Amino acid sequence: MFNFYKEIKDKSGISPEFLHDFNLVNISGRLLYVEGHSGVSVISPNLINFKVKNGRVIVEGSEFVIKELTENTLLISGKIAKMEIF
Q: Among residues of the chain, what percentage have pLDDT more than 90?
């Protein structure tokens, strides 16, 4: 089966040590799609904090709504102002 993210990672030429075991897609600062999260820690209209393998992602903005939350995927809509990966 075709995996878009795996194809991009394989063809990017970037050393595997710099690639993550999760995928983030920010669409025009209005939607954030996440594959590979390990749980959501904080949910508020202005902040969402979730775990990923070997780290954490903090998303700041406003009007956040979680559109989809499964054991592996997360879809957030709102106005995304800032995203940090630790």
A: 60
Average pLDDT over residues 38-67: 93
Q: Looking at the domain assignment, is residue 68 inside a domain?
A: yes
pLDDT digits (tens, 9 = 90+) for 22-48: 888 899 999 999 988 999 999 999 999
Burial category of 9 from C-beta neighbours within 10 Å (exposed 0-12, middle 13-18, buried 19 and up): middle
List the CATH number of the domain containing 25: 2.60.40.2000
Handedness of CA 78, 41, 53, 4 (dihedral sign): negative
| Cβ(36)–Cβ(52) below 8 Å | yes
Total number of domains constituting the chain: 1
Boundaries of domain holding 71 = 20-85
The whole-angstrom distance between residue 40's C-alpha and the CA centroid of its chain comes to: 11
Task: Report pTM.
Answer: 0.77
Six token digits for residue 74: 């997360």
